[in-house]
What does this fold into?
Amino acid sequence: MTQTISVGLLGLGTVGSGVVHIIEEHQDKLKHQVGCDVKVKKVLVNNPEKKRDIPLDGVTMTTDANDVLNDPELDIIIEVIGGVETARDYIVQALKNKKHVVTANKDLMAVYGSELLETASQNRCDLFYEASVAGGIPILRSLVEGLSSDRITKMMGILNGTTNYILTKMTQEGADYEEVLKEAQSLGYAEADPTADVEGIDAARKIAILGTLGFSMHIELEDVAIEGISSVSREDLEYSKQLGYTMKLIGIASRTVNKVEVSVQPALFPDNHPLSAVNEEFNAVYVYGEAVGETMFYGPGAGKLPTATAVVSDLVEVVKNIRLGVNGNSAVIPQYKKNLKTDDEIEAKYFLRIKAEDQSGTFSALTSLFAKYEVSLEKILQEPSEEKGFADIVMTTHTVSKRNYQMILEQLQGLDVVSEIKSSYRVEGDE
Ligand code: HSE
It folds into this structure.
């Protein structure tokens, strides 16, 4: 068969250029895998005159999206422009024109994923989005294919490179959050407006996508309880270190029988947990399956070529499906109705740091409160506070329901001996 598959590209920024590069550089391998040529024919750009250091012979540049979306010669559209509403309109138009779509857009898939997959299915088209979660790590395909025979009960992901870079620097250099954020911005690792990254929203979009695929249940962004890292202090990390823990911003999706919890928060892991060794801007996804046990997927979560490999691997999948005549099956109807755990059903261990009066009766007041909610303490550390007459007390609990823990936090505020609740974090990975 001498067919050539023609591709239209929406966007020629960092990832788009990487896609062109990989398709060109790996053409022999691609051809061997799919049995035909794959060529980028048309690209939507802002500025066709701009000089670019990628091979663009035979590629038509246009500033009009309709030139790409309505071109009958194009079989597949790759969306790498980012943003939500325009990207959504383009993808819908492409699918209605019976073009298969590959996207790297997690913001879009976290919000409109189900709707777009439905549109793809109605038009007998593929819609793949491997690059939307953890860039170069093939985690979506691992969940849907590699682990398809297992029943996944827990996923924990370091899904945001910016925050992992910041927490790594704070931990290793004993630096303050603001200081490291500024340095990360000046080096180009963090965005000028870092809100979506540091407040956990980017990670929440990704864990919603993982939860939906891993649990076959439609998890939406609004189902994710989100807490970022902007109030993490150097002291929190120092005390965590003394107790043998490393802090990570972690997306958690866990399932007990048929109920799930999905959240993003800074959490403490034992120093010897594999997630504790994931540093700098790297991502990792830990997956626990009933049959397979523990697995972990590690790699670059962003960047030109890592992200482009995921996009082009999706492209290969679409072309294989075209050759086999089996497109239109990327929307798998969720097996289960969404069933979220209540705060009574969410169970975790916690780290708690308070400033309290350094006098007799303080511990008795604290332990009475914990006993009232049947919470047992695992580790306790006390050091003199900077203010005379006060102590910094750091405790970790055994497993407790989120509801009971919140009750303890509320009532701690009312204890005369407690001056301030400094911080509180989940402890994960040492069950
Ligand atoms: N802002 C993201 C991060 C980029 O820091 O990981 C990849 O989604």
The mean pLDDT is 96. Residues 135, 160-162, 197, 202, 301-302 surround L-homoserine (CB under 6 Å). Residues 4-134+304-324 form a domain with the Rossmann fold fold (CATH 3.40.50.720). The longest strand covers residues 245-256.
